Amino acid sequence: MGTGELEKASQVYELWQQTYPRDWVPYNNLATLNAAFGKYEEALEEARQALRLEPENQDNYVVASFSYFSLNRVDEAAAVVKQAEERKLESEELLGIRYQLAFLRGDEREMDRLVASVAGKPGAESSLWFCEVVAAAYQGRRTEEQVAWTCAARRRSCRTKWC
Amino acid sequence: MNEGYFGDARQARADAREALRLTSKGTVPMWAAQALALAGDVTGAEKLADELNRQLPLDTSVQKYWLPMIRANVALDLHNPDKAIDLLRIVSPYELGTFGFLNPIYTRGQAYLVQRNGSAAAAEFQKIIDHPGIVWAVPLGALAHLQLGRAYALQGDTAKARAAYQYFLRLWKDADPDIPILIAAKTEYAKLQ
Q1: Is residue B66 domain-resident?
Q2: How many domains in chain B?
């Protein structure tokens, strides 16, 4: 992967799968690569295998739910996220996925609730802050976007809701 | 880069340079080059693209996605949509992938608009609209509706054009009013009435 030769990396992961068929890592990595290539059906298949082999790793829920909503299968993506919640699994990436799902559903109340729920938690807060900034730009609210980026770049606090 | 899409070339250039000043790691140089190309800074975009090509000659995402897309936008700056479309052929197998939020499809759509090929442009922008899970909340998802309206207008389909403009203007009802592409959209929409 160091040279960025992703097709070659795919071949290595396939060989890894054949050699260690019960190892979830190559399935997860292949799911990510297939998503990078825009092959979301294949990504989903690999992600489901990774999840079956290792249901306690949050990354497997991330790549599975991401594959689902990239295929516009939002309800199934949400079901995967719920499974992670039931296992008490959490990560910044999963949080981002939950925000993205809420955005795709037009559920502003859930978006706000998620942001409020991570107030004061540095990693999670910045993860959702990024999502909020992107969502502002989607609606052409660029002043908010610019203020947020500028503050982040200068790493200094200000009093707007975007920082 | 958003500023490039919003039509604010000066801000796009400033943001790209500031991003590069802060870091040249990860995908920052790719996005910065794309922003410069969108802002019409042909020299700056080409310089960054050449540097990426030199540093990452084997990298799949750079060689088969970013460089063709950046150079396609440079071609559009130079009023050469044929070359832009040709450059984007290599990206086609990857265009729905996670490298860059459907940017190549948007660029191809814009090239068709410059060619005044409304139906081909509409097909590209519709592709973006049909994949909300991939484009997610990046502004291209909203701007695709405006561009679809422009494509329909080129085809002479005023009803569909009006509907697409209305959809975009509803999405941007709370947008900052000074964004160049919004000002243009409102002017164009008024002419459709």
Answers
A1: yes
A2: 1
A153 to chain B: closest CA residue: B22
Listed residue (A103, A104, A132, A144) closest to B179, CA to CA: A144
Q: Which CATH number covers residue B13?
A: 1.25.40
Note whether B175 contacts A149, CB cutoff 8 Å: no
Contacts of B145 in chain A (CB under 8 A): none
Residue B162 inside a domain? The answer is no
Chain A residue closest in CA terms to B3: A142
Cβ of A138 within 8 Å of Cβ of B179? The answer is no
Question: What mean pLDDT do residues B77-101 have?
Answer: 96
**Inter-chain CB proximity A38 and B62 less than 8 Å:** no
Phi and psi torsions of B167, nearest 5°: -60, -45
- Please check whether residue B28 lies inside any domain of the structure: yes
Pick the residue from chain B with its C-alpha nearest to A43: B97
Taking the CA of residue A35 and the nearest CA in chain B, the distance in Å comes to 6
Question: What's the pTM?
Answer: 0.92
Question: What residue spans define the domains of chain A?
Answer: 6-89
Query: CA-CA distance, B137 to B25, in Å (whole number)?
Result: 24
Residue A145, pLDDT score: 65
Whether B72 maps to a domain, the answer reads yes
B85 lies in which domain range? 2-144
Superfamily name and number for A6-89: Tetratricopeptide repeat domain (1.25.40.10)
Phi, psi of B137 (to 5 degrees): -105, 10
Q: What pLDDT digit, counting tens, does each position of B95-124 carry?
A: 999 998 899 999 999 999 999 999 999 999
Phi-psi map region of B59: left, alpha, beta (phi>0 left; psi -120 to 50 alpha):
beta
**CB B133 to CB A149 under 8 A?**
no
**A36-95 residue pLDDT tens:** 999 999 999 999 999 999 999 999 999 999 999 999 999 999 999 999 999 999 899 999
